[in-house]
# Entry
Amino acid sequence: MKILIANRGEIAVRVIRACRELGLPVVAVYSDCDRGAPHVRDADQAVHIGPGPAAESYLRIDRLIDAARSTGADAVHPGYGFLAENTEFARACRDAGLTFIGPTPDAISLMGSKTAARRVAIQAGVPVVPGTEAPFDATASDEQMRREAERVGYPLLVKAVAGGGGKGMRLVETADGLLGAIQTARSEAGSAFGDPAVYLERQLARPRHIEVQLLGDQYGTIVPFVERECSIQRRHQKVVEESPSIAVDVRLRHRMADAAVAIAERANYTSAGTIEFLLDEDGSFYFLEMNTRLQVEHPVTEMVTSLDLVHWQIRIARGERLTIDPEQALTPRGHAIECRIYAEDPDEGFLPSPGLIRGLRAASGPGIRNDGGVAAGYTVPVFYDSLIAKLIAWADSRGDAIARMTRALTEYEVIGLKTTIPFFIWLMREPDFMAGRFDTTYLDGLLASRRIASFSELSDQAEKRVTIAAAVDAWLRSSSGRITSTQRTGTGAASLDGAWKRVARQEALRG
Amino acid sequence: MTFEIELNGRTRTVSVEKAGSAPGRFRVSIDGVKTTVDAQRVGEFGVSLVFPDDSHESGTVQLAPVGARGELLAHVAGRTVPVLINGGRTGRVADAVAGAHGEQKIAAPMPGRVMRVLVSPGDLVDARQAVVVVEAMKMENELRSPRSGRIKNVAVSPGMSVEAGRVLVVVE
# Structure
């Protein structure tokens, strides 16, 4: 098997690693701005597929299929995002004689529609969040929508049938806001997903987001894994994930796993997938949606089960039977936490801060895993999601994992860019986070209550240290002894190196 | 040599001179307070500091050039702070903190689409108050005013696509 990875960034690097470990040749694809990206360097072959904007490169099905043909790849791994949950792409791969390393087009299509997926869950006997069974079409009258909303109950969410990541989603507190919210959600969903259909779902007061990873082979075996807790979200985007969940005991774990398997069986699911649930304060849980792909946060599951999900995706795709011990998959060993490190400035409302990475020192040491997709000298492009690495800490207990994560975050240096590292260092020390007292509304509330202060607040000692370092740095870079010389920066490695050598030479002469 | 180092809105005068013949030894004075430091280059951008005469405290700071001359991003123990050397010349760091003065142009930091315009000409705004929401890289981003003042001009409207560097709002 020779695998083409139809993706970029850290997930492309992650899949390359699995291919290497399985002894499989691997083909990367890249856009104009990704020529220097690590996934291109690490692959056996690489094919240019177009300009920076995703619509002209990573979303071009025709070019991806051509790239596989011209390099003799016979399988395609879609990663996550881009075309990973695109039925048309899975079909195009199949029609071109390529093995799609993921579920079947039918399963993607069935579970990709939120309302169809809810019906599957209901048929499987799994509770869903109270909501409308069928989406509103364009002919739905105001009166009909109001009646449905009354039945679902307020507060409620208007959600896009084709949605994801908080797009096309509106919170409605009372009946007054309903029609306006439906209108906005429709237009947002229409422009974001090409499908304006929306439905209603009751908003639970303080739910936790708990999800069950599973693998299914081509012979009907489905293995569920220990849950992941993904309640730490900013504007519906996960930023910290962990496994296991502090809110789930062994009995609840088995009940959720059983529910997840029942849904996956109904969908004839194969490959890696995730069933997402909302866990209410009273311990009842509801099916939320299914993700028909490998997820960003899969490493925490791998860390606590010692199983490799990408290996299994590939092995399942080439027709192997799942031989995982179900006990091993469902019994966590220790605790793992993941922080998504983005090129964003947390002090400016998490504004993307793409740019040149001058230097990079990833954290390492005991219990640390770094799934990165960038390197020194690489410019984080403006065209894509700005995730640059996922930092995962494993330890025997949750408390130790948090301490280890904090240690690793303070080691991590992404030189020349603003990243979310300072934010995570702060979050790891928040009492409610440390105690596991949170739900999906926790982080947004916490951030709203501390808008002004910087996440990079320095102690007096650290401030003194930076001040002295900056002065010494300027001294080292300036030519010897001229008071007026304060020039520096914006220079390449060569001249900096030159300045340093000059200083070293002076030193040698003095000695 | 004397440098003006601006950090967290505060400017300090720092003088640096070699201390004797020991390599890397410097006598440093910050606003008149003297200390001795052993400073070693680490990689291209790092400086490792040890204070041998008093606390024996040790630490490393990475200082990468960004933007205009003299503008640095310092990384220390997981924190990231802008630093300006001999700053009066660009004033860029000052703009980033609430002390910014003069007319300020708020520009799009990356290509995107204007989702909402939150102010109108003549409005009074506080420092760091959100003025425009731009969708880029799949996220909605609030762009904030670098200073308190009055909105002089709004150059965009919702739905517009903007290039990086396009001026959106001017505050005076």
Chain B has two domains: 2-94, 100-171.
